[in-house]
Write a structure and sequence with these properties.
Layout (H helix, E strand, L loop, with lengths): L1 E13 L2 E3 L5 E5 H7 L6 E6 L5 E9 L6 E4 L11 E11 H6 L3 E3 L10
Parallel strand pairs: 1-8, 2-6, 3-5
Antiparallel strand pairs: 1-7, 3-6, 4-5, 4-7
């Protein structure tokens, strides 16, 4: 049996930009991507703590060390600059493998989005 489990989580990052007229996605600082074990084009779920919105999109690599968290395209309507969000990705794996799997969960500074 296969089940879906949390693979990666960036817990409480602050939105730094919203670019409505860019091809849809979320741009994430490459340092945060590495720490959370996310790769470019990976599907992620975004949960907005400020307004309760939830959406799925994919990751675009942002400038390393920039602290950038930018919602692009239609996703920009779900978050505004300054909102605090949770970014999560999931993996499908065998039930027994999932029992021992440890997700990558990071807690960046919510003011700068830098790793603490």
């Amino acid at each position: 049996m296969l089940i879906e489990v949390i693979k990666s989580k960036i817990h409480q990052a602050r939105v730094t930009e919203a670019n409505l007229y860019y091809v849809g996605s979320i741009t994430i600082d490459e340092d945060l991507m590495d720490a959370a074990n996310l790769i470019e084009n990976e599907r992620v779920q975004i949960v907005n703590i400020n307004n309760g919105e939830r959406l799925d999109t994919y990751v675009i690599k942002g400038k390393r060390g920039s602290g950038s968290i930018c919602l692009n395209g239609p996703a920009a309507r779900k978050c505004t600059v300054g909102d605090v969000i949770i970014i999560m990705s999931y993996a499908t794996m065998d039930f027994e493998e999932a029992k021992n799997f440890k997700p990558s969960i990071i807690f960046p500074d919510t003011e700068t989005n830098r790793l603490v």
